[in-house]
Amino acid sequence: MTLRKGPGSGLKILILVSLLWLTACLASPQRTANTPLEAAFSDALERFQSEYDFPGITASYVLLDGSSHSTAAGWADAELREPMTPESRMLAASIGKTFVAATMVSVAQERDIDLDDPVSTWLAQNNWFQRLPNHQGLTVRQLLNHTSGLPNHVYLPAFAEAVSQRWSEPGNPFTPQTLVGFVLDSEALFPAGEQWAYTDTGYILIGLAIEAITGRTYYQEVNDRFLEPLGLTATSASNKRWLAGLAAGYVAVDNPFGFPAKTTDKNGVMVWNPALEWTGGGLISSSRDLAQWGAALFGGQGVSEEILNTMLQSVPIGEDMPGTYYGLGVAISRSGPLSPVFGHGGWIPGYSSSLRHYAESGITIAFQVNSDQISHRSLSEIELCLAAVVISGGKETDCVP
Q: Is residue 21 within 8 Å of residue 30, measured between CB atoms?
């Protein structure tokens, strides 16, 4: 068959060829040209994944001018060979405490609540309240900055034993009241306000206080105050087993809770219910969202200056960690070449994460790993290396883990 060329046929052929080319481009993966910083940041992540033998890792940075970049390496599911992507989500664990504290301080400001008021004002009606260690005079601020003297239920053998026996049950066997129950009638670690000891239990009480004060759920409050206004669309409640976009997490075989070595089944559903964390953390997120949250929170866009200054009012962690302080849901380092550094780490079976804001340079970096088999030293090495890469604009590329 012969094609007949009429008026304008050449233009039609050109358009047809252009459309075919565009279709081919859209159907095939594209490599965008990276800036030196983006390339160095991505290369560093590839090195971490290889050197530490993580299943997968994601990371993101936000610069002072608001520009950002996210990258990933390794596998979101090693058995199914699903690659990790910047959109992959993981349990953010205790980084969620930054959201809990920001919510509590915001509520207090709006309702003219003094953070040094006793928490009994809102929780004394519970029949278990007087069985709490240090319940008399225990304040909101002491719960937020971990000077309450409350034991941490997560560290207690009774909690580990209970979880190991009940993690496979349907629903969530560990309600907030159940979690608080593990520390009732216990001895206080120290008189309230006199020392520092990290305790998830204190943040469970903060969650209960937020709900008692507002008459709404904590997740409604954090969504309406921060997640929706800041466009953190990859961040949501980790209060059910099916969490869209969740990367499989890999758990130490000898974990005290008896969890399987992988957090998800073949359908991507968690084999245990992450709702047991609640306001001890309680969120699933991406590194991109965490970095954007840190940049907004510490950069003054996420909360008012008054709220941020309140959150940064801190106490020393202890003599064994000089230069390290804890504010209200915020860990603060005031020693070292990059100080001051604000942020929080996160650990939960199967996942490790970090959020750090470097105040001097104005940059924020977050990363997540779908494994809990990583030491604090290794996490610190990754933090420092990524910070060096970003602060140098990609020129610092020889920091090898």
A: no
Quote the CA–CA distance of 367 and 354 in Å, as a whole number.
Answer: 5
Taking only Cα atoms into account, the Rg of the chain, rounded to an integer number of angstroms, comes to 24
List Cα–Cα distances, 153 to 176, 258, 353, in angstroms.
11, 17, 21
Q: Which residue has the tokens 């940049």?
A: 295
Q: What pLDDT is attached to residue 2?
A: 28
DSSP E strands in 63-201: the ranges are: 68-77, 82-83, 90-91
CB 342 within 8 A of CB 326: no
Return the closest-CA partner of residue 321 out of 335, 340, 311.
Answer: 335
Contact 199, 146 (CB under 8 A): yes
Beta-bridge partners for 144: none
Q: For CA atoms 356, 94, 294, 43, give the dihedral sign.
A: positive
pLDDT at 139 over 70: yes
| Global pTM value | 0.91
List alpha helices for 113-217, DSSP H.
120-123, 140-144, 157-166, 176-181, 200-214
pLDDT tens, 290-301? Answer: 999 999 999 989
C-alpha 374, offset from chain centre: 16
Question: What interhelical angle do 36-52 and 376-391 show, nearest 10?
Answer: 160
